[in-house]
Amino acid sequence: EINNTGNIVGTGNQRNGTVYADSTAQDFTLNNNGSIDAGAGNSGAGFSVELSDTGNNFTIDNGGSIKGRGTAAAGLATAGDGIRLERTRVGGALEGSTTGLFSGVINNSGDITSEGDSGTTAGFRAVNGVSFQGTLDNSGTISGVQNGVYFGNPTPAGGGDHQGGVVNNSGTISSGSRAFNLDGNGLEVNNTGDILATGAQRNGTFYVDGTADNYSLNNSGSIDARGGSGSAVSIQVGSFAGDVQNGSIINSGSFIGDGNSGVDAGLRFFTTTTGATFRGDIVNAFGGLITSSESPALLIESGVNFDGTVFNDGEIDGSILLGSGDLQLSDTSLLSLDIDSLTDFETVSVGGDLFFDGTLELNFADSFDVAVGQTFDLFDFGLAQGGFDSISAQSITFDTSNLLSRGSITIASVAAVPEPSSAIVLALGSLGFLRRRRKQA
Which run of H or E residues covers position 324? Predict the structure, then answer.
């Protein structure tokens, strides 16, 4: 048992880590309410362990600060991770013939940070080839220049099996390049806090690599790219031709993408191989929000075979582009689309079946003159069923007779808006700040 309320500080580049445990270390506890720091101007991890292939079980309870320093390459023993779980080195190198297993608990209510700016270095990193089958509970902050949290993939020798591994985040995980990276098999991530971009994100603020499988993301907090740019959640499907990736995504919080690249979505699926399939459902639960500033809210790119259904019980604010799969809108669903002109408006395109229900909210640009008879082809689908309970657009009613056949709606009438009293004008002016058009935000 190690209890630190003082300072454990490097005065030069640190071999392996400022606090280091080797593969024989078992059943120890590190309680840190002080500072563990590789030292300003040095290179090295705050804490590093070389795990055995049969596993190491220990506890880290951090209420203080753990700092990795320097910009050494990710594969070097002096890489600047905050906390690094790695497999046993051979001749000082992580050369792929070893694996490591972690089955302990890491509790962080303090700060874990990394200066590392290369490769996979991170505030917290389970290196490629490590099987993380323990628990990471974060109620503090974990941040890194390159990655906030990084979970590695398998190596030729194995590893990357995270079945039983759990991440519970009620604090803040952030990075200027990628806040959360998930590789490997079986990890469960529960986010009730914030996973945030502090700079332009590589692929996504929460990124799932093509090697990932059998994972789950349960979000009731915020995953937000607006501190930089990129998708909020970005899923790379498959790592080889014909690969099948299994996953589950449940959102009752917010996925907020930022950027106008066309792929900076709230939730994005893409692939770099052929014939890759994502198998699983996406549930945007009641209270959930999926949106992006100027890219689609939800994007499943062509090339991805989506074997599942998108269930929306919450709000999707922006275009939806599903190259494959079905979209089911429930009675609590809110679908919000912007209309800037007769030729410039957000749309919903579904490769499979579309089930209408709930509320459609249409936000007309102030500069657009609406008129009876104007038609908007908002929806494209294989087969459509149902209908919206209501369409929200101030003073406008619609003809929806072509909704199920052509995916279009037509303005049937535009009511004159009476001049309100000055008191009502003032009240409405205040309410106007509560909801603004997304593209103007």
Answer: none
CA-CA distance, 51 to 100, in Å (whole number)? Answer: 5
pLDDT tens for residues 394-415?
899 999 999 999 999 999 999 8
Burial class of residue 109 (count of CB atoms within 10 Å of its CB; 0-12, 13-18, 19+): middle
Tokens of 53: 């292939």
For the segment 314-342, the average pLDDT, to the nearest whole number, is 97
For the segment 113-147, what is each residue's pLDDT rounded down to a tens digit? Answer: 999 999 999 999 999 999 999 999 999 999 999 99
- The predicted pLDDT at position 416 comes to 67
* N-terminal to C-terminal alpha carbon distance within the chain: 51
Region 92-105 average pLDDT: 95
Place of tokens 């002016």: 429
Q: Which residues contact 106 (CB under 8 A, 6 or more apart)?
A: 59, 60, 62, 83, 124, 134, 135, 136, 137
Q: What percent of the chain has pLDDT over 70?
A: 94
- Residue 356 one-letter amino acid: F
Cβ-based neighbour number of residue 359 at 10 Å: 17
CA–CA distances in Å: residue 52 to residues 37, 44, 88, 122: 25, 21, 6, 21
358-362-365 Cα angle (round to 5): 165
d(CA 157, CA 43) in angstroms, rounded, equals 29
Per-residue pLDDT of 245-282, as tens digits, reads: 999 999 999 999 999 999 999 999 999 999 999 999 99
The answer to whether 104 touches 57, Cβ cutoff 8 Å, is yes
List b or e across 371-386, with b for residues whose CB sees 16 or more CB atoms inside 10 angstroms. eeeeebebbbbeebee
Contacts of 222 (CB under 8 A, 6+ apart): 193, 194, 195, 196, 253, 254, 256
One-letter-per-residue 3-state SS of 123-154: CEEECCCEEECCEEEECCEEEECCCCEEECCC
> What is the DSSP code string of 360-425?
EEEEE-TT----TT-EEE-EE-SEEEE--SEEE-TTEEEE-TTHHHHSEEEEEEEPPPPPPPHHHH
